[in-house]
Amino acid sequence: MIAESSRLRLRPSVAMVPIGDGQWQFFLGNTRRSRHYRLRQDLASAVAQMDGHATLAEIAGRTGSDLHGLKALARTLHESCILEDDGFEQRLACSPWRRVLNFIGDYVPSDSVEIAFERLSGTEVLILGAGAVGSWVALQLCHSGVERLTLVDDDTVAMSNLNRSLYTLPDVGQPKVDALTRRLRAINPRLTVRRRRQRMTDANELLGWLREAGPAAIVVDCADLPSVDATSAMVDSACRATRNAYVIAGGYNLHLSLIGMTVIPGRTACYHCGRLTLEELQGDELVGLRKLARPWRNIGNLAPLAAITASFAVNEVIRVALSDSRIPPAMVNRRGEFNFLTNEMHFTSLPPRPECGCMP
Amino acid sequence: MSLAAPYLRDGIDVYLRGEDEVHFVFLATRTRIVLRVRPYLVEALAWLDGRQSSEDLVKRMDHLHGTQAGARLRTFLDYLEHKGITVEPDWLERSGLEGQAVAMQQRQLSFLLDVLGTPERAVAAQRRIGKARIICFGVGGVGSWLLRQLLAMGFRRFVLIDHDTVSESDVARHAFFVPADAAKGSHKVVATAERILEQFPHVEIATSDSALTTMTALEEIIPRDASLIINAADQPYIGYTSVLLSRFCVPRRLPLLVAGGFDAHLGSVGEMIIPGVTPCADCYAAHFSDALRDWVPMEHPVADRRDAAGGLCSLSVFAAGAAAMQVLRLFTGEDEPCGGRGELLFDSYGLDAFTVQRRPDCPICADT
After folding, report:
1. Neighboring chain B residues of A104 at a CB cutoff of 8 Å
2. Is the dihedral of CA B200, B203, B209, B214 positive or negative?
3. pLDDT tens, B95-107?
């Protein structure tokens, strides 16, 4: 509630820049976003005095502004995440998640930030596969405040995993879900982890886990056995039935980090819609070609590729879990590639396909 | 035929069309070799699993399709070796790298083989990584995630410098800290080194809790055998600390990586500064002061804005990952670094990239 006694503050991460002709740019430094407003000089001076100590009435008195007009402007700028409410600074100061809350505060007005964060920390995330990408996803989610995880993996840590995952020498020989859980609990003792030391072999299994986890749970597919396509199809089948959102973590292909799709079943293109489009895009150059089978093959990869792929999956989980239209998931109806050699980001549009039958 | 037992390299996709058309697609470069060969040679591609000697393969071909086919296979195998399509299956064991390094780094060595083309170059790059001494200023959000990735990649000699102590909100985005480090108020470098040694017992780490200012005696902190300086120190401001370090590095020809991702620029792809090759930090500073000449924010009503920064761990990890790949490129020497910087835009995941040129009149690097 913004009243004349409110002591609002220009968010410390926001720069207020005159760009001529009475126009002002408010640059939100954390997220590199800008908002533009045309302001009367007295109102601009008033905003530039909002230090969290003076009330709106006091500032209006100093700048000679009309108090009603200033209140209306303050409401607008608070909604736009340019001003923050009275107690926000103190509330943040005592939270270990200060940086995450401040980040959310660039998308959600300050008086709703904690409620949004509670949605994130309370969301259950099912991570299928605790290999390189899966371990990086779990750790980054834990560092973002997520407190409920399910880890699914039947494998044990091998020496050859250490170059790209978060496992280290003392973990070798232990079940991945156990080694990872220990690491995560050391960071946040409040974390609850359900460990499933098994491989997902069909969609029904996942269906059971999802019914236990509830409709808000989010699935992240980091499993590549028997193949990413096979596990994605299982995930799609289960999530389509329960309407749980899922994120395909993608993978890596030499100098490329692949950024997978985010799917909200019934509302956005699903894995199969994406597959239909990708098959068409493959074009003539691969038509009629079959791949030579080489069961012994080991594709090279390394830590930064896994870490970057995982970082985008984590961004997407955070966006979906916040469930706020001001910070929607960014990987719906598309997938992307980040090229390290050129530092270029490339996206492929994967629209919903009516013939897929996934839309109601 | 010099290969004892030819093995089809992992980083090459092999596609077949009909009975006689073969496509070799090099994943690293996306280049493609298309051949039309006799169907029995196509059949023989599936034999190149590194378990059979070249002589046995030729004999097998003789037996199945006659001696002329055997002779043609001999020529074909030579061709595949010449093009780098086949290698020895045990090239890793022959590398001379120590057993544990091979066991841990086999997938990275496969990557290096694909990118660099020959086992010799891949092994030499890994060996340079194992010997390199990395000097890292700032072990906060981005610095720690970069260190974590460099450790996984096989770097093992570090000097860490940071004056700050661990606070509770640091734990939420740091690669090494645990809540006990914050409770004790440990120095960041001490806590980081302790945690690293728990997980990587064979690593060599020196630490310093000096602050980075014009008064800092850099020659006492930076050893003579330093291979790379990393700047992940964002206080008081990363542009300022980069200039300090760059002025030290340029006359000594030391590479300097500005690892982006400090508080207000979390998704940055920072710049590698190679004295004499790329712009130096003074060139960057001059470039941005020109570019932002007309962009002058009002004085902010909140004087102390140190705790204002917001960010996600995933953005720090992205910045660290992009920086780690730049470090790898420095040690593979595969391409000439150029000037420029990038910024991940969180809303669209677009990468806002721009190039920066050397300043011919730069007082610091013009003569290098």
Report:
1. 310
2. negative
3. 889 888 999 999 9
